[in-house]
Structures are given as C-alpha cells and as structure tokens.
Amino acid sequence: MTHPISNGERDLRSAVLRGLRGRCPSCGQAALFGRFLKPVDHCPACGQRWSGHQADDMPAYLVVLALGHILVPLLVATNMRFDPPMWLEMLMWPGLALILALLLIQPAKGAVIGFQWARRMHGFAGGR
Ligand SMILES: [Zn+2]
Predict the structure, then answer these.
(1) Distance (Å, rounded) from C-alpha 109 to C-alpha 128?
(2) pTM score > 0.90 for this model?
(3) What confidence tens digit (pLDDT) does each residue in 35-72 have?
C-alpha cells in the first residue's frame, strides 16, 4: 500500500521528514527531485503530482535563517579562540556559507513542499 493514510489525513511530520530527505512526501518511495531544485512532475511510485507546490522563496529564507544561526556563533568562537589572518577569514566564511547553502537548499525545499502537501496548501488543495 503506497498510501499509509487513506482517510484524507496527511501526516505533517512524516511528510516534512520525507521532503527533508528528498523523498516523495506522500509515500517516501521515490525521489522528490528530478534535478537539483526541480521536483518531479509526479511521483513514479504513488502518482502524487508535485507541480502544485509554491515553495517560492521560503526554502531560501529558511536557509539564510539557519546559516545565520550556524555561522555567526562559529565566527565569533573562532575569532575568540584563534586570530586567523583577514585574508583567510575572507575566504573561509563566504566559502563555508556557500557550501552550507548548497547543501541545505534542497532539503529545505523538500520540507516546504512536504509541509504544503500535508496541509493541502496551494495546488495541493482537494483531491489527492
Ligand atoms: Zn510518492
């Protein structure tokens, strides 16, 4: 059975967690993304359509929020403990921010799509 919950309820927690892992929020059986940030048109396992999502800027907003909370304390702690030369800091922090942003943006988008699907927002209203 590909739909563990068939009474119309959609479990928010499992949908968000599946989206975070890049899996179909509905069934968890197939990949949510065809390309880096482009969800598949529909899930090959359960048939759920993903074109109705409207994640928009929310994933990027979440990534910026998370990066601030990760990088600022790290930057302060590093500068209190060590005294890195300015050229190193100017390479290290933007580089680290870029790498972390690239690592976090797809899981963030998956989670947002999972959230919208579970709450039947936007194109996920009604039907399946
Ligand atoms: Zn699916």
Answers:
(1) 20
(2) no
(3) 999 999 999 999 999 988 999 999 999 999 999 999 99
Say how many Å lie between the CA of residue 107 and the centre of ligand 1.
16
pLDDT of amino acid 9: 84
Distance 41 CA to ligand 1 centre (A): 11
Domain range summary for the chain, segments of one domain joined by + = 12-124
What per-residue string of b and e applies to 106-125 under the rule 16 or more CB within 10 Å gives b?
bbbbbbbbbbbbbeeeeebe
Distance 32 CA to ligand 1 centre (A): 8
CA of 31 to the centre of ligand 1 (A): 8
| Residue 8 pLDDT exceeds 50 | yes
The per-residue pLDDT for range 67-113, each reduced to its tens digit, is 999 999 999 999 999 999 999 999 999 999 999 999 999 999 999 99
Q: How far is the CA of 3 from the centre of ligand 1 (A)?
A: 8
Question: How crowded is residue 64: how many other Cβ atoms within 10 Å of its Cβ?
Answer: 15
